[in-house]
Amino acid sequence: MGAMTRRDARGEALILVLVTLLVMCLGLLYTLRSVTVDAQMSGNTLARQKDMQVADIALRNLESQILAVYGAQPLEVSAGSQTWYRAVPAGTAAPTASYWNACSGNSNTTLRCAAETVSVTVGSVVLNYNVLAVVQATGQSDDYTCGLTQYRALYYDIFLNVTEPNGATSSTVETVYRLCTLS
Predict the structure, then answer these.
(1) What is the count of structural domains for the chain?
(2) What is d(CA 156, CA 138) in angstroms, rounded to the nearest whole number?
(3) Residue 45: what pLDDT?
(4) Which of 41, 107, 146, 171 has CA atoms 20 to 30 A from the CA of 34?
(5) How many whole angstroms separate alpha carbon 53 and alpha carbon 102?
(6) Is 134 among the domain residues?
(7) What is the DSSP secondary structure assignment for residue 104, as one 8-state letter?
(8) Parent domain of 141
(9) Distances (CA, A) of 109 to 43, 68, 76, 87
(10) Is position 119 within any domain?
């Protein structure tokens, strides 16, 4: 076998360059995929945080409505005509996705919810979130947490379904609300 000439070496260099370019392209594709996944996760986290902030605003609005109607009586007595009060047996499970799709404007007291629009300004853009709300009895009570002997604490589940203005995402938030009523 003779010595390799310059002409023979050109082919080997070309193969080495092509393999190097292929490895670099694969590295670039992996990096782009990682960046895309990270951006999607960040977007989902941001959407969830906005939904939670809107739920907090809606919860404060609902709390003022509860306090306006309760009159030191259980909500089962004082809030029966309110669209946000769901007259179901104590401890009924949380509403499902199909429930939220059909509850707004429903006259059935076990299948209804209140609808509210919460406006949030981001920079110069106003976003109108749709919020559906339901309050229902938990069946839990106690005589100790209200601090006054003539009052009894009753507990209610509050469920809020928050939907983005474009309808792309929605979140359901649950909280327990304590109401002190006359014994």
Answers:
(1) 1
(2) 5
(3) 84
(4) 171
(5) 24
(6) yes
(7) B
(8) 48-182
(9) 37, 20, 11, 6
(10) yes
